[in-house]
């Protein structure tokens, strides 16, 4: 039996985000092309223990002290569904800012579900975990599937996930990003409230895009879309607009956009060197911002 498991919880990046409207059940119907930051992740470690325990570390662990963590919620629900699962002592090394629009908490919960399954000798992710994941949060299913590090098209309220069979959505695009957070937290519910989406008469399904053969195709698709939550988020936290302005002026930045409901924004670049050089330029001007260059997958 495995005694110790470590899982990475990669940051989720909404390359675009369309809010189609508010459904009759009160949830928002959305669609989004999602990528994951290969080089930006929290680390979830679990070892066998008679009772659940969670310790926190890393640059952003302290703000979570004393709060109910999604890892605890995920493990409690998983063991309620499958009592035969092992219990464990968890440690979260938190490198992703809290409440930042890149799914840090959702990715942590998904990593915990994968870890508890492996610790219990379960091969792969149990199918029941996908339905369970949606109960934890709208971003958890996309972070749980695809080993939490494979681009996807998501829609509905987050439960409908499409990945091309045998292909990677971003293919050989070689896309890199610079993630930037101005050090503010934005509540998703507040952004949705400010957005004031129209109530839908019926729920429709979007057609997922085809895999992108190259960077030019990806950029063409993204430039024809947007993040519909961006304007509402900026009205709540003007610092987001400041970040986007900085990103747009950086050398070799191909596109600047907010991820999720903010406040993290990203700039896209065609190479690792370009994203690293951009991070150095930005950090000279804003040492107080969190800045992280990464490949997107």
What would you say this structure looks like, in words?
Helices cover 31% and strands 26% of the residues. It is of the alpha+beta class and 297 residues long. The chain has 2 domains: 4-162, Ribosomal Protein S5, domain 2, CATH 3.30.230.10; 176-295, 2-Layer Sandwich (Alpha-Beta Plaits), CATH 3.30.70. The strands form 2 sheets. Strands 1, 2, 3, 4, 5, 6 and 7 form a 7-stranded mixed β-sheet that branches. The chain has a 4-stranded antiparallel β-sheet with strand order 9-10-8-11, with helices on one face. A hairpin with a 3-residue loop joins β6 and β7. α1 (70-81) runs antiparallel to α3 (128-136) and α5 (188-195) packs across α7 (230-236). The chain is globular. The model has no long low-confidence stretch (mean pLDDT 95).
Defining key terms:
single chain, 297 residues, alpha+beta, Ribosomal Protein S5, domain 2, Alpha-Beta Plaits, 7-stranded mixed β-sheet, 9 helices, 31% helix
